[in-house]
Amino acid sequence: MSLDPKSALRVAQVLNEALPYIQRFTGKTVVVKFGGNAMVDEALQNSFARDIILMKLVGMNPVVVHGGGPQIGDLLDKLNIESRFVDGMRVTDSETMDVVEMVLGGTVNKQIVNLINKNGGRAVGVTGKDGLLIRAKQLQMQSEAAGLHASEIIDIGHVGEVEHVDTAVIDMLIHGDFIPVIAPIGVGQDGASYNINADLVAGKIAEFLHAEKLMLLTNVAGLQDKSGEVLTGLTTLQVDGLIADGTIYGGMLPKISCALDAVKAGVTSAHIIDGRVPHAVLLEIFTDTGVGTLITDNDG
Ligand SMILES: Nc1ncnc2c1ncn2[C@@H]1O[C@H](COP(=O)(O)OP(=O)(O)O)[C@@H](O)[C@H]1O
Ligand SMILES: CC(=O)N[C@@H](CCC(=O)OP(=O)(O)O)C(=O)O
C-alpha cells in the first residue's frame, strides 16, 4: 500500500524533523520515570516500550525508573491494610514495606522488563538493592499536613531518601546494550529496605549519571497554574514561587522538587509529560512539539 503524496510528505517531514534531535542526543543518557496511566493502559504501555526501544536503537541511553503506587494500593486493599500519604509520600510501616518490595521489585518491575523485551528490546530489571545501586537513609519529613508546626519532623516509617547512587550497575547494563529498568527501593547501611518515591529516585539517578534529560510521565497534561492552564516552560525561580503559593501540591510536589534538584545539579532539562498521550516520550524527544512542562535552570 502506498501513501498519497500529501501523507507521504508529512511522514518525510516528521522523520526529517527528528534528524537534528537524533544527532544532538546520540550517546546521551535520558532517565524516564514510567508511571500513571501509561503504566496500566495496554496500548500506552506498548507505545512507551517502543519509544524506549527506538531511543536505544538511535544511540541514546534510556534508563527507566518506574513507580507503582496504584498497584501497591491495590494489594494493600486486598490485604485490608490502609494506605496513608503525607505530602505525596506513603506512610510505610514494616508490613507495608513488605508489600511495597513485593509489588515494585517483583510484579511491576518484571512486567515492564517483559513489556520491553516483548516489543523487541533487551531490558534488565533491578531494584536499588542490586549491586548496592541505591544507598538510602530514612527520610526526615517536615510537614504541616497533620497540623504540626513546620519545623517538626514526623515519622512516616520505612520511607527513604537517596544518599548515593552507584552508577557502576547502570553503566554495566548500558554498555552491555541493555535497557536498565529500576524499581525505587533503596538499601540502608544495615541492609534495611527503604520505600522511595519513584520521581525522587529518577531525579537522583539522572543527577548521578549526568543525564541529558529527566522525563517524568504522569496523568496530567503538565504542570498547571491555578486556572488549569499548562505551563509549558518554567525556570527554577518560577517553580519556587508556585510551591510557596500552593499551586503545586500533593503528588506534584516530589515530582517538581526532584526536577528542580536535577536541573540545579546539571541535568540539562527536566520534563513533566502527559503519559496519557500515545508516544509521549517520542514526541517530547524527537519533535518540535512538546507534550508537557519543560523545566530548565535558566536562573542559574
Ligand atoms: N500545579 C499542578 N499541576 C498539575 N497537577 C498537580 C498540580 N499540583 C498538584 N497536582 C496533582 O499532582 C498529581 C500528579 O502526581 P501523582 O498523582 O503522584 O502522579 P504519578 O502517579 O504520575 O507519579 C496530579 O494528578 C494532580 O492531582
Ligand atoms: C514513599 C512513597 O510514596 N513511595 C511510593 C513508591 C512508588 C511510587 O512512587 O509510585 P508512583 O510514581 O506510581 O506514585 C509508594 O509507596 O507509592
Automatic annotation (TrEMBL):
<keyword id="KW-0547">Nucleotide-binding</keyword>
<dbReference type="InterPro" id="IPR041727">
    <property type="entry name" value="NAGK-C"/>
</dbReference>
<keyword id="KW-0808">Transferase</keyword>
<feature type="binding site">
    <location>
        <begin position="68"/>
        <end position="69"/>
    </location>
    <ligand>
        <name>substrate</name>
    </ligand>
</feature>
<feature type="binding site">
    <location>
        <position position="90"/>
    </location>
    <ligand>
        <name>substrate</name>
    </ligand>
</feature>
<keyword id="KW-0963">Cytoplasm</keyword>
<dbReference type="InterPro" id="IPR001048">
    <property type="entry name" value="Asp/Glu/Uridylate_kinase"/>
</dbReference>
<comment type="similarity">
    <text>Belongs to the acetylglutamate kinase family. ArgB subfamily.</text>
</comment>
<comment type="pathway">
    <text>Amino-acid biosynthesis; L-arginine biosynthesis; N(2)-acetyl-L-ornithine from L-glutamate: step 2/4.</text>
</comment>
<dbReference type="InterPro" id="IPR004662">
    <property type="entry name" value="AcgluKinase_fam"/>
</dbReference>
<keyword id="KW-0028">Amino-acid biosynthesis</keyword>
<feature type="binding site">
    <location>
        <position position="195"/>
    </location>
    <ligand>
        <name>substrate</name>
    </ligand>
</feature>
<dbReference type="Pfam" id="PF00696">
    <property type="entry name" value="AA_kinase"/>
</dbReference>
<feature type="site" description="Transition state stabilizer">
    <location>
        <position position="33"/>
    </location>
</feature>
<dbReference type="GO" id="GO:0016301">
    <property type="term" value="F:kinase activity"/>
</dbReference>
<dbReference type="InterPro" id="IPR001057">
    <property type="entry name" value="Glu/AcGlu_kinase"/>
</dbReference>
<feature type="domain" description="Aspartate/glutamate/uridylate kinase">
    <location>
        <begin position="28"/>
        <end position="274"/>
    </location>
</feature>
<keyword id="KW-0055">Arginine biosynthesis</keyword>
<keyword id="KW-0418">Kinase</keyword>
<comment type="function">
    <text>Catalyzes the ATP-dependent phosphorylation of N-acetyl-L-glutamate.</text>
</comment>
<keyword id="KW-0067">ATP-binding</keyword>
<dbReference type="InterPro" id="IPR036393">
    <property type="entry name" value="AceGlu_kinase-like_sf"/>
</dbReference>
<feature type="site" description="Transition state stabilizer">
    <location>
        <position position="255"/>
    </location>
</feature>
<dbReference type="InterPro" id="IPR037528">
    <property type="entry name" value="ArgB"/>
</dbReference>
<protein>
    <recommendedName>
        <fullName>Acetylglutamate kinase</fullName>
        <ecNumber>2.7.2.8</ecNumber>
    </recommendedName>
</protein>
